[in-house]
Design goal:
CATH topology of the largest domain: Spore Coat Polysaccharide Biosynthesis Protein SpsA, Chain A
Radius of gyration: 19 Å
CATH architecture of the largest domain: Alpha-Beta Complex
Largest sheet: 9 strands, mixed
Number of strands: 11
Structural class: alpha/beta
Distance between the termini: 44 Å
Number of helices: 10
């Protein structure tokens, strides 16, 4: 089998079904020929997603639904789907995406022909047709400071290009590479797992590339709120430094993160914004735990 498409769903059954519908319209023949499979992992949703998705796919070929008894988070949930995948190549696809063309097949062929490349990301666009930049530099100390200052510039290259990392809305990886580098880090519940995976692949000698020949429409609607995202990103950036970087860099990164959080807390107090105060206090607690 050429490709396994893994979709993680958590309380997003309408989005997930729309995503599946787009895949069925594009890959109907490949699914019938068993060249492609779609694996949906429901991450212990509480909104009836498991039942709704099960009903929708019941008469459709090439789809499997896995129901987790607990919310495993992004990484472990996708690892569960990958563990049951039969394809030589995997693509982890967010539930808030829709596929517009057969570009995934071109991506899989490109990976097969370029064994030094482990991870590949398609071009992302918003639902209004505008480009959604999805390739970025690793958060070494200079780039971490740039990000914390709000000056980070992600990109969407016009041609096939080597990049540091690609955002996880649609992440393709050869299955043997995914297994060799250790899959998604189970200690990262959500956010920064894409960055960490690409960094770990690089350490193992596998490059990450951007592939604009495949286009995915991404709604950017997650199943978590913005405050949770901010706290998780702060926590997981520090975890990344602890895991991969020298201790002195870990200490500098922690100082930068704490300083930014403290400044936002003070700003929140001045302008009486409880969201700023509560969110960044929680981020500071996460950095101290």
């Amino acid at each position: 089998m050429t490709l396994s498409i893994v979709i993680l769903s958590y309380n997003t059954h309408d989005l997930t079904i729309a995503c599946i519908r787009s895949l069925l319209s594009v890959f109907e023949d490949e699914l019938k020929r068993e060249e492609i499979e779609i694996i949906v992992v429901d991450n212990a949703s509480s909104d009836g997603s498991l039942e709704a998705i099960s009903k929708y796919i019941s008469d459709k070929k090439g789809l499997r639904l896995i129901g987790s008894r607990e919310n495993l988070g992004f990484g472990k949930g996708n690892n569960l789907g990958a563990s049951q995948a039969r394809g030589e190549t995997l693509i982890f696809l967010n539930s808030d995406t829709e596929v517009l063309d057969k570009g995934f097949l071109e991506m899989a062929d490109f990976l097969t022909k370029n064994q030094n490349i482990g991870i590949l990301g398609p071009k992302l666009i918003n639902f209004d047709g505008t480009i959604q930049p999805s390739a970025a530099n690793f958060y070494g100390l200079p780039n971490l400071l740039i990000m914390l200052l709000g000056l980070e510039k992600r990109k969407s290259p016009e041609g096939i290009e080597k990049v540091d990392w690609i955002t996880g809305a649609a992440t393709m990886v050869r299955k043997e590479v995914f297994e060799e580098i250790g899959m998604f880090d189970k200690n990262i519940f959500m956010y920064m797992e894409d960055h960490e995976l690409c960094f770990r692949a690089k350490k193992k000698g596998f490059a990450t590339y951007f592939f604009p020949g495949a286009i995915v429409r991404h709604k950017s609607v997650g199943s978590s709120n913005k405050a949770f995202a901010i706290v998780s990103i702060y926590k997981n950036i520090l975890y990344f430094y602890k895991k991969h970087m020298p201790h002195w860099q870990y200490r500098v990164a922690r100082f930068l993160l704490l300083t930014k959080a403290l400044l936002i807390v003070y700003l929140g107090k001045i302008i009486r914004n409880r969201y700023y105060v509560n969110t960044y206090r929680e981020a500071m607690r996460a950095l101290s735990s």
